[in-house]
Amino acid sequence: MKFRGKIVDGACLNHFTRISNMIAKLAKTCTLRISPDKLNFILCDKLANGGVSMWCELEQENFFSEFQMEGFSAENNEIYLELTSENLSRALKTAQNARALKIKLTNKHFPCLTVSVELFSMSSSTRIATHDIPIKVIPRKLWKDLQEPMVPDPDVSIYLPVLKTMKSVVEKMKNISSHLVVEANRDGELNLKIETELVCVTTHFKDLGNPPLASESTSQDRNPEHMAEVHIDIRKLLQFLAGQQVNPTKALCNIVTNKMVHFHLLHEDVSLQYFIPALS
């Protein structure tokens, strides 16, 4: 298996660095899937076990000026690598305002993702900072567990308010309770609610708008004001909100009553899906 890529455009380099920082905040370790036209950062803690899942996707041509890869085989032309997200994020921090960035799959006593950063220098010589990030190559038989998660038909799909606002609300709520109820309807209303023996606090967001649902039968059977709700771990929601570096162009929340909440963010050419299971 082979992989090498090069980014020379400054804006692409900064954008790629921001994505890496976001992933590091969302997942301690993640899987990097490399295919001929896409890169994916994947976290697949089993939803059934109460873990969150993440699927981040970017088109390689929007970032890389050079991109070559040879996967497991001609039929399975993909590479799956497990890495510590923080290591990649730390390596890319040195790439801010760099001349170029090269990423390559190497073997230096152990498999590595080698990140080489070409830095501007006062003299005519070039300075290069190199980081070897240890990785684990994931065998073909385990790929089936790392596919894009299926999203069941949501009971309600709603656009999210400004994520910064939502984060500051959830941060305050975390001091009162460890879990919260996310509820929304097809009338553009979203509520964040915590209830304890002593207090009940609800934050209301109105006029957010609802995208058309894929399954029209859902929308016909349901009173637009009826609330779909899901009970989740507040820390998992806060981790997701804290990971957002840039306000997305589009942010959606899909609620499957008492099962899960699915967030789908679009940042220009990057898509992030994040799944938080309901508390049992």
From TrEMBL:
The keyword DNA damage applies. One of its GO terms (cellular component) is checkpoint clamp complex. The keyword Cytoplasm applies. Keywords: Cytoplasm, DNA damage, Nucleus. GO terms for biological process: double-strand break repair via homologous recombination; meiotic DNA integrity checkpoint signaling; mitotic DNA replication checkpoint signaling; mitotic intra-S DNA damage checkpoint signaling; nucleotide-excision repair; response to radiation; telomere maintenance. Pfam families: Hus1. It is found in: Cytoplasm, Cytosol; Nucleus. InterPro entries: DNA_clamp_sf, HUS1, HUS1/Mec3. Belongs to the HUS1 family. Component of the 9-1-1 cell-cycle checkpoint response complex that plays a major role in DNA repair. The 9-1-1 complex is recruited to DNA lesion upon damage by the RAD17-replication factor C (RFC) clamp loader complex. Acts then as a sliding clamp platform on DNA for several proteins involved in long-patch base excision repair (LP-BER). Component of the toroidal 9-1-1 (RAD9-RAD1-HUS1) complex, composed of RAD9A, RAD1 and HUS1. The 9-1-1 complex associates with LIG1, POLB, FEN1, RAD17, HDAC1, RPA1 and RPA2. The 9-1-1 complex associates with the RAD17-RFC complex. HUS1 interacts with POLB, HDAC1, FEN1, PCNA and RAD9B. HUS1 does not interact with RAD17. Interacts with DNAJC7. This is Checkpoint protein. It comes from Callithrix jacchus (White-tufted-ear marmoset). The gene is HUS1.
